[in-house]
Amino acid sequence: MKKVIIFISILFFVYFIYQGIHLIYYHVDPNFKVSFDIYNILTIRKKDLQNSDYFEFKNMKIRDDFKNYERLESNVDSDTSPKLVMRDENQKVIKTFWMGFADTYVYLLQADKTLFGTKDMRIVNTDLASILEENNIDNDIELFQYLWKQKNVKTNIFTSVKQMKENYVIQRMVSVIMPVVDNITLINGDYEGYIFNLKNNMKEVSILKNNQRYIFIFMNTHDLTDEYLTDILGTIVIE
Q1: String of b and e for 185-196 (b: at least 16 CB within 10 Å)?
Q2: How far is CA 224 from CA 123, 195, 202, 214, in A?
Q3: For residue 176, what is the enclosing H or E element?
Q4: 31-89 pLDDT, tens digit each
Q5: CB neighbours of residue 62 within 10 Å
Q6: 217 φ, ψ (degrees, to nearest 5)
């Protein structure tokens, strides 16, 4: 009986040492922990306009509410994402609008991790695409919902090493590729996407289509209401 107790004690000791080492190894630095709230959901319904009523860039169109804006001279090339500004009587920029497109965050996480210059072996030696697949993360919205659920989860000595590793890798990589976000508004209805509600009265709208993010950025948005956003985003056309 005594030998059994000693054997069990050794097993527990080895287990706690093993778990403790991995708990330290996969500790997520608070500076790199992604934390935000999913603020609300906007349901957007598509509206059809006359062609002359659109502002266009490549295969993207949105209602032209920017007739009083000027396009920056360094940004007039037809292949360059347009940046428009509105100025006051003193020529101070009071509003800015920008549109363009980029890869989704899930695509970036599935890409070659060396693109981000990381030498962290905890990341380099991990198949992040498989982690995303195992957690049913196929698009950016599912990624944000996963992170939102994880934000208050604290790993401890009883957390599986697999879960510690997954949490560390996803949190660390997302912190590299995403801006610091106060909260996120999800978009559903006739469109799928989300809005990053950022500091300094800035909103970054991403519409997901064709495995890309079609981005519309509104800056100095202190007077930008959900009603207006619902209205203008319903005029987006992506061909």
Answers
A1: bbbeeebbbbbb
A2: 39, 13, 10, 20
A3: helix 161-177
A4: 666 667 787 899 999 998 887 889 999 899 999 999 888 888 655 555 678 888 888 88
A5: 25
A6: -110, 125
What are the structure tokens assigned to 101, written together? 């497109």
Neighbours of 87 (CB within 10 A): 13
CATH 3.40.1000 fits 41-103+180-238, yes or no: yes
Pinpoint the residues of the chain covered by CATH 3.40.1000: 41-103+180-238
Ranges assigned E (strand) in 90-149: 93-103
Burial grade of 176 (CB within 10 A; 0-12, 13-18, 19 or more):
middle
Which amino acid type is present at position 106? V
Does the pTM surpass 0.85? The reply is: no
Which stretch of DSSP H or E encloses residue 173?
helix 161-177
